Each structure stands twice: as structure tokens, then as C-alpha cells.
User: What shape does this take?
Amino acid sequence: MKKRIVLLGATGSIGESTLRVARSLPDHLEIIGLSGGRNTARLLEIAKEFPAARLCAGDEAGAAALRNALPGREILHGSDGLDELASMPDADLVLVAIVGTAGLRPALKALEADKDLAVASKEILVMAGELVMATALRTGSRVLPVDSEHNAIFQCLEGQDPSTVRRLILTCSGGPFRKASANDLASVTPDQALRHPTWSMGRKISVDSATLFNKGLEMIEAMWLFRLPMEKIAVVVHPQSIVHSLVEFLDGSILSQMSSTDMALPIQYALTYPKRYAGPCAPLDLLALGRLDFEPPRTDLFPAIGLARRAGTMGGTLPAVLNAANEAAVDAFLAGRISFPGIWENVERAMDAVPFVEHPTLDQLIEADRAARVCVTG
Ligand code: NDP
Ligand code: MG
Assistant: This one.
């Protein structure tokens, strides 16, 4: 039987890779819901390719344009539309690939409606990991990681006793400035920050990879997904991005997952779990690769990892503050309003300034998120 998939964020980088997986596995996957944001033209093209899917445009104007082009087709829009797609009665699995925290509400809706949830949007686990995982536990739905590092760890942990894990080792490409000096970092432009050495991704995550906030967010994401304390989560730089992450067990064994640098593979594994099929991802040629390198991250020059460690260890509202301040600071950097080091300076300032709540409700998390953004833009 085909798995019926709702894809939120279809017009983005993860969205496009997901569609590539769906095209290559037509006997196993069926796309029944698709959402976009501002790129209505791209959503229209995708809608024509998947004529049976229900659609959700970013706003009313986008929905009107789609209705004109696709008479007779049902078109939703905005956050209510996302909620409706996320709880479609026919859906088996909802993949959330909306950048930032706009995917949190539909992710919770999907879990409440007993759907499996595939999470690409790491920001929602950083902001509200406790709530998302508690909801999944209550409803019995699965949370399947799409982020390549977490998908790798998920694969390595299969069939293992979680109490035998000594630590998780997240790999990190080091980003475009792996070898830069503090001086070089001071004058980094948005164009330079958007040029990732090994992955092709959306703008926000590309900047996050350059500051290493991406790895910081992933450390917190890993805490929630695998229910481990921050001290059991380590980071190593691995410039080739072939070993996607590793798990070290109590006996000293280390298991890793390797594959080519293509998000189609972790996306496919999350969509078809627990089954494996021949999909669009090219096989890995170890001999052409020749070598795999590992180095320590430069935490002195890139404070993001230390800030994320602090946020994950303290818990409460601090991860939400780190996440929201980073999102606002990345926007400000891309708009030319702050420097590249200004990103982590703003995040640290917000973490020091926003009042801390140890066991926040969802409303308190939303308030911490808002206050952190004001700290950056205000
Ligand atoms: P993109 O910027 O390429 O795509 C983002 C998607 O979200 C687009 O479909 C966009 O629509 C939609 N969107 C943005 N804002 C809203 C909103 N307010 N409401 C509804 N839809 C919205 O990002 P990526 O695909 O690169 O990343 C998506 C998520 O996956 C991020 O959280 C990222 O951290 C994570 N991720 C990405 C990886 C990658 O390789 N790209 C790897 C691992 C994780 P539109 O473009 O039409 O405006
Ligand atoms: Mg990742």
C-alpha cells in the first residue's frame, strides 16, 4: 500500500528534494497535500504535476491566483490552511519543511491527528522540543528526523538499547569559513555566507551553517529527538560531509551512517521508514573519495556551539530565545543591517536579556520568542 504524504514547504530546497523522492518511488509514495509560501508560481507548477494533491498557498492573494489557474481545485491558505492539510484524514505522514517556527502549529496538529511527523524544520524542535515529543508520546505518533545528522543517528540506533549509548557525535562540514581568521569573519558578506562548500540549501540554513548555529540548533534538536542530556552530545568537523553522524556505545563501538551528500536519502528514509528502496540517491564511491577527515570545531572563533550548549543545558525558554534571536539576526545580516559576527553578538545579548522561565507553557515560549526578536530588531 502507498504511504500518503502531506508536504509542507514544497517550494523550498527540502520540498524539491522530497518531490524528487516521490517521483522516483511512485509505487510506494503518494503526495496528497502540498503547501508553499510566497512562491505561488512554483507551487502552481508543482500542483500541475501532482493533480490529486490538496493545496495551501501562503496567503489569500496566492490562493486567488491558484484558483484562477486551476479552476475547480480546492485551495487553502495561511496558517489555518496548513493546519487543515496537516490533519487531512487520509494522510499517513506529514513532512514539515517550512523554514523557521511557522511549522510548529501544523506539526502539533499532525501529531494530534495521529499522523507520523517527519521533521526537517529543526527550529520547531529547538523552540518546543519538549512539547512536540510529549505530544507524540501521548498520541503514539512517530517523530522521524529528516535532518541528515539526526537521520543518521536514528539509523545507527535501530535495534540498540538506548541506555548503552555513551554519546552522539554530530558531524559538521565546518561551513565556508572553516579556515577563516577572526579578521576575515568581520567582513563576511551575505553572498560569501550563502556559498556552502558541500550542501545546496535554503538561505537561512546556509547562513546558519556558516556561523555554526546550524550545528548548535542540531545539538538541541538531538537532545529532544533522542532524549539525551547535552553533555552526551559532541560535535566534530568532517569537511567531506559523507559520514552524516555517529553513535558511540558503552563498549567503545562507534556506528556511523555514510552516503553521498544528497538530502534525498534522509528524506526517503523518513518517508518510507522502516523500509528501504532503491531511490534517487547516487551510490557512494569510497575509492573515488579516498579519505575522510575529522577535526575539532573552532569554538573560540564560532561561539554558536558554546551558546547552544548553554541553552540546551539550561533548558526552559533559553533554546527558544537562541532560536528566535538567531532567526531575526540572520534576516538582519542578509538585509545588510548587521555584520556577520553581529549574528552571534545579538543572540548572546538576547539570551542574557530575555527573562528565563524554567518550565514554560506554549504561550510563554511564544512570548520568549517574541521578546528575543525585539532584542535583535528593537
Ligand atoms: P527554503 O528556504 O528553501 O524553503 C522554505 C519553505 O518554507 C518554502 O517552501 C517556503 O515557501 C516555506 N515558507 C517559508 N515561510 C513560510 C511561512 N511563514 N508559512 C508557510 N510557508 C513558509 O528552506 P529549506 O528547504 O532549506 O529548509 C527548510 C527547513 O528544513 C529549515 O528548517 C531547515 O533548517 C531544514 N533543513 C534543511 C536542509 C537543507 O538541505 N535544505 C537540511 C536539513 C534541515 P516559499 O519559498 O514559497 O516562500
Ligand atoms: Mg543537518
User: Anything to note?
Assistant: The domain at 3-145 is CATH 3.40.50.720 (Rossmann fold). The longest helix spans residues 122-139. Residues 225 and 245 are 14 Å apart (CA to CA). The radius of gyration is 20 Å.
